[in-house]
Amino acid sequence: MQDERRPVAENPRPDPRLAPVRHGLTVNGRSVTVEAAPGTRLLYVLRNDLALNGPKYGCGLGQCGSCTVLVDGRALRSCAIPVRAAVGRRITTLEGLAEGGRLHPVQEAFIAENAAQCGYCLNGMIMTSVALLAAHPDPSEAEIRSGLQGNLCRCGTHVEILRAVRAAASRLREARTGSDGDDA
Ligand code: FES
Ligand code: FES
C-alpha cells in the first residue's frame, strides 16, 4: 500500500491552456475562494494566493515533507495534492496552529529545545508532529521516529527535533490531565 505521507506527485505544473476554476476552501478556519487552473497543487495556492508561507517548497515531489499541512487532521504533502482535492476539507497550515494568541505546544517545544538550524524542514516536522501526537498522545520512541521518518532535515537537527516532540507530548498530556481535572 502506498504511504499516504509520500504521495507520488503528478506533474505539479498545471496546463496553462486550461482556464482557472473557482475553488472554495476552508483554511485555518476561514472560508476562502481561489481561482486556480485545474491540477494546481495546494501548496501553490496556499503560498501564492493566500500568502501562507508556513508550508515550504522543498522537493515539489512529495518526498521531503517541508510542504506538509493538515487536511482533516491528517498530515499530507501539499505539493502533491491538487487544490480540487482539498475542496470541502479542513486545511490547517502552520499559521493556523496557534490558539488565543498562544503558539501550539509543539511549536513552543521546538523553540524551547532550539530544534532548528536553517529551519527549512520545521514546518513539516511540526505539522507532522501535531498529527502524530493527536493520534498517539503517549508515543514510544519508535513511534516518534517512524512518524517523522519521511521528513527530511538536511541540517542534521534530528536529536533536538526528537527531544522537542517528546517534550511536546509530555506538555500535551499534562494539559489534558489538567483540563480533565478541571472538568471533574
Ligand atoms: S515540497 Fe512537498 S514533499 Fe517536498
Ligand atoms: S533545520 Fe535545516 S533542514 Fe532541518
From TrEMBL:
GO molecular function: 2 iron, 2 sulfur cluster binding; metal ion binding; oxidoreductase activity
Renumbered residue ranges of the record's region Disordered: 1-22
Compositional bias segments (type: Basic and acidic residues): 1-16
Keyword annotations from UniProtKB, A to Z: 2Fe-2S, Iron, Iron-sulfur, Metal-binding, Oxidoreductase
PROSITE patterns, sorted: 2FE2S_FER_1, 2FE2S_FER_2
CDD domains per UniProt: fer2
Keyword Oxidoreductase included in the entry's annotation: yes
Designated name of the protein: (2Fe-2S)-binding protein
